[in-house]
User: Which sequence fits this backbone?
């Protein structure tokens, strides 16, 4: 993989980089099923995570990934950090760097926050979700899950349904899956579709049945209400009736199509409980794979750069 200090955007990764990350993750995944889930390669390395927004999966996944590889981890949330006393992000970053971590993992409500931090520090920075911009590690675990299931990403049709405009997962997935040769179709209410979807090389459908027709993957997204600002849809009920993935919709997908969701799910809105829990759903596989993909990223970054700018 070409030398990288940071993982900030899927745009910065070549197709070969992505394949290398996915292959590394595949080889590390079996560690998660061992009775003793710990190997030594990152002994003596330190990952610091800064989560300025709520998170269950991503935060625990990074923490477990680091621990499985014997790195030390320590983290802080916005409410317990000096940000509440008025410290700015760059000062926070420089102070953390002064304690010599190897990797800093940042989730932040502002788009571009991880890029800003990466410029300010010498250690590696991983973007764990910045505003509406990107969530590269989620896209990598999504690609891993699809490739693990179908054996390839080439030529598959991926239908992403929901609040595309405000979803950093959708942005990273659109860039990643198209880069890997998949055909991506996005679908949702007109108010939740980005203004220039053609720049992503994706197709737009406003009718759910057209979007899921022949799809190999149907991925639903949560309505990102915390980022929508004003009412962009008439009601959750109307959204569920037009774009919700329920048993009737599942019936209309190809029999081998899989269901995905980055989580957290709002059951009954973007997806009905029976679909989320069906044997076509790979939602929990995504969560398991997230640990393997983050193990791969941590080991690649720490091995290549030793955590420092080259
Ligand atoms: C997503 C996020 O935070 O961007 N979740 C995740 O990291 N798995 C999606 C969401 O919040 O809806």
Assistant:
């Amino acid at each position: 993989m070409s030398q990288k200090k940071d993982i900030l955007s899927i745009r910065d990764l070549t197709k070969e980089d992505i394949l290398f990350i996915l292959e590394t993750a595949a080889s590390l995944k079996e560690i998660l099923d061992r009775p003793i889930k710990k190997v030594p390669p990152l002994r003596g390395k330190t990952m610091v995570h800064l989560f300025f927004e709520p998170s269950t999966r991503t935060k625990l996944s990074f923490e477990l990934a680091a621990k499985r590889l014997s790195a030390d981890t320590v983290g802080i949330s916005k409410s317990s950090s000096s940000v509440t006393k008025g410290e700015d992000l760059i000062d926070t970053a420089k102070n953390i760097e002064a304690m010599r971590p190897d990797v800093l993992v940042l989730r932040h409500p502002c788009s571009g926050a991880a890029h800003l931090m990466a410029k300010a520090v010498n250690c590696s920075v991983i973007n764990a979700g910045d505003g509406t911009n990107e969530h590269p590690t989620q896209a990598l675990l999504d690609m891993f899950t699809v490739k693990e299931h179908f054996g390839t990403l080439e030529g598959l049709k991926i239908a992403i349904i929901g609040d595309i405009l405000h979803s950093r997962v959708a942005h990273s997935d659109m860039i990643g899956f198209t880069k890997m040769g998949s055909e991506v179709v996005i679908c949702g209410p007109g108010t939740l579709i980005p203004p220039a979807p053609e720049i992503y090389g994706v197709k737009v459908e406003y009718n759910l049945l057209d979007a899921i027709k022949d799809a190999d993957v149907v991925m639903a997204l949560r309505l990102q209400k915390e980022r929508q600002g004003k009412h962009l849809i008439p009601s959750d009920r109307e959204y569920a009736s037009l774009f919700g993935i329920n048993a009737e919709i599942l019936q209309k997908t190809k029999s081998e199509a899989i269901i995905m969701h980055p989580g957290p799910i709002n059951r009954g809105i973007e997806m009905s409980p029976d679909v989320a829990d069906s044997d076509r759903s790979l939602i929990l596989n995504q969560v398991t794979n997230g640990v393997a993909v983050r193990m791969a990223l941590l080991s690649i970054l720490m091995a290549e750069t030793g955590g420092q700018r080259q």
